[in-house]
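anyone seen this seq b4? input:
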Amino acid sequence: MTGLGAALPYAGPRERPATGARAWLALLVAVAVGAVAFSWPLFLRPESGMSATQAPVMFAVVLPLVLAVVLSELAGGRMDAKTLAMLGVLAAVGTILRPLSAGTAGFELIFFLMILAGRVFGAGFGFALGAITLFTSALITSGVGPWLPYQMLSAGFVGLFAGWLPRALGRAEIALLAAYGMVSAFAYGWLMDFSFWPFAIGDGTQLSFDPAASALENLHRFVLFNVATSMGWNLGRALTNAVMVVLLGVPLLRLLRRAARRASFVPANPARPLAE
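predicted toks r here
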């Protein structure tokens, strides 16, 4: 086999780490918390007082969630000291890349790394990497604010769902990851916009949140708001993800999978050796 398909290591079923019961529970709790955190304006009025306490409460919830995911991975034997070291290294790389890319016109270099790491190491690792990367990069860029817990959750979901993507090989895997990079870029932008949209603009416009309207009508208003204000940024982020996955996906997947095997994170497949 030649070309891109031969360059990629085998990604057979035994290479993809299985998620244990503890990790499943922790990840499902994270998804449920995220659903509540981002969707509450559809069911509660902004003047309910939730907006005043939401950010600190979310920050107090997100950090234990990340810790719970990591501990569940350790307890299930899916992480060891070497894997934790890899998590720290990748988070440090993402922390450095974020201020370099600056997010201008949606150009952000951190998400493709979360996608590739989540693909190789699994959903729990991807969630922890996304959340930790946004947290540490916010500390060094003075980006700490009420938006930070939502950024941590949204980025965590980018890595999480990358670990749940279906099996693919060769060119199909790169195409799958590039397509996911585009979809997840828009999803990240939608979630972040939705976290502040009810308070972003005043009443009386077709783009503003209407507490008296139904959830479906407010979703329609949000779509108009997002298209009018954030489409360019989301599109730039999506293209950046896709281009970086296509350009660097093959060598980085090979490197990450080699590191995973040396950390005893995944079992070798004796039926078909992994390409180096």
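The chain has one domain: 16-262. Residues 16-262 form one domain. kinda curious what u guys think
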